[in-house]
Write a structure and sequence with these properties.
Pfam families: GGDEF_2, HTH_30. The protein is an alpha+beta fold. It has 14 helices and 6 strands. The chain is elongated, with a radius of gyration of 33 Å.
Amino acid sequence: MDERGTGGEHLAQYAEILRAACATGRHLTRDERDARRAEGERAAEAGHGLRTLVRAHLATAREIQPGLPAGTARHLLEAVEQAVDAFAEGYERAQRDVVRREEAARREFVDDLLYGRSDLGRLAERAARFGLLLSRAHAVAVAEGPEPYGDGFPVARGIESAVLARFGERNILLTTKEGRLVCVAPGDQPDILAFFAKRAYAATGGGRVAIGRAHPGAGGVVHSYEEALNALGLADRMELEGPLLHAADLLVYPVLARDREAMEDLVETVLGPLRQARGGARPLLDTLHAYFDSGCVATEAARRLSLSVRALTYRLRRIQLLTGADPADPQHRYTLQTAAIGARLLDWPRAAR
């Protein structure tokens, strides 16, 4: 039988082992089992399929059976069982090693990609192995939930399966990083990240997803990833509502926070007088947040604070008296709202100097 191309080269000495075992009815020796394990490892590394190899083992046993002494059928079956078991053990061990190496290589690539630590030219070459063409612009979506997630977690596997089933490979990378779910997709296909965001929100039980802007090249992936992370951080500090955040919609906040000293001066100058209120600045600051977040609609702001409209109106008057700025006056509103945003960014008054 011509075994070339079917893994038959890994059946060396197999027929002799069967004949020797059947001659005395003995079990395979340790050396014989080790030899079959080694052949299994080599077959896996050569890329042969295990089913094809098992069939080749059984075919060889059938070929030699007519030449064996009568009454040795049971011994032959036992020897085949031991030989195939050892071969499969070696094959599976090699497969596990390959998987571990692939996982390690993928994790190293993901780390380098999202941290920008590797040479960009070399990174682009490695990216092709994982289905990314870094010559194109990419955008990154990052999802976080109530608990951290890893690559092997059911949540991560389920989202990856859903995204790839819907869009195929299409230059997409799904992974996890520091407990968050990450999706890298072509910048001109926003439907991919939108679908990822929808699936991630559902799978994490109401988590939050941020999407960075599209940027070209390997460095663009890092830039978009950092934008998404910053958007998640801003959402926490600013108490932004909604499960989906777009970094492009939040560009005003980094601008405001860029000159920290100026922002601290603005917050302290405008809102510092609120400390004189009974109970400190926090209740009145919360009132400002609710009022501006509700579009300066008193009834909605009162509902958010579980207050009566009369109580809310009283608080707004107190703010005006203490700061000299009327939240309902368009001329004063911008200064107060900017200061209130700065208070959130700086965690004022808790983090005030």
